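Sequence in, structure out.
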Amino acid sequence: MTPWERFVTVARGGTADKIPVAFGVDSPWIPGFFGIDTLDYFLRPDEWLRVNLALRERFPEIAWIPGFWIEYGMAAEPSAFGARIVWHHDRPPSIEPVAGGITTLLKFDPADPYQHGLMPLVLQRYADAEQRLLPEGLNIKMVAARGPLAVAGWLLGITDLLIGLKTEPEAHARLLDTLTTTIIAWLRAQLSVLRAPEAILVLDDIVGMLSPKLFEQFARPYFSRIFDEFRGLIRVYHNDTPCPHLLERLATLDFEVFNFSHEMDIADVQAKMPRVALMGNIPPLDVMVRGTPAQAEAWARECIRKTNGRGLILSAGGGMSPGTPAETIEAVVRATEDG
């Protein structure tokens, strides 16, 4: 089986020939790993293609998630609602909250991914990238979007968002509805330019900061809309904010794969989310960056032991941290070699 076939098999509740290894990677890690300028990674399609193909060649046993990801840090969705994007040579862009806050944002209709912000540029680049990949026998399998609370957090600032959910709930519900409509359209637009996509990735860490009551009010309605819209595809949800108080509630949302925080015990997560494939949960900084290969392999083996390998996709407990070396990545793969 290929790394992607293993990922799909476990995501859909099956058993692969070996435990899959998958890592979520994007512009915080890839340019530094290959020693290139972040702006070159964004702006030079040939360089972007070269390093993404090099990842497959360097680590042939790993599924890269989402894989051949065209992104500008977290800027695509906020850029469609007036956020100022600040660019850097050595890291992804920063995003400044929109002046005027919720009052300004409520004036926006849902964004059109074919016209607004950076989204049309991403779509054009996806179409071009797939045309370059098809002669190699490859295609892009997964597309991605930030979730509505994550986008709202960039547009408002996290503190203002969390305060606003309590002090102005109706206004913030209206904003989240607008953002959810945008995210669904954005995912559909990305899928439309690809030949045979199989999965979506939704990233939203802010959910983990909510109480159970606020989850039901400000997360469930919007995430249910998103995941229900894409039934038939593999739906991956990334949230690496520790949220043990929400696991049973998250388990009732309709997604197949959960990429979660290393600060939650994987056995506990499996017990509370038994139908979901778990993608994790090796500490991305303390072990994958600062630890030794032996520590990374030992942590991976402990994940296998605690889950009995069932429904497990070995990964970092979050995205790949800047500075992660090849040696600890290879060590995680070694943990799967004897079963």
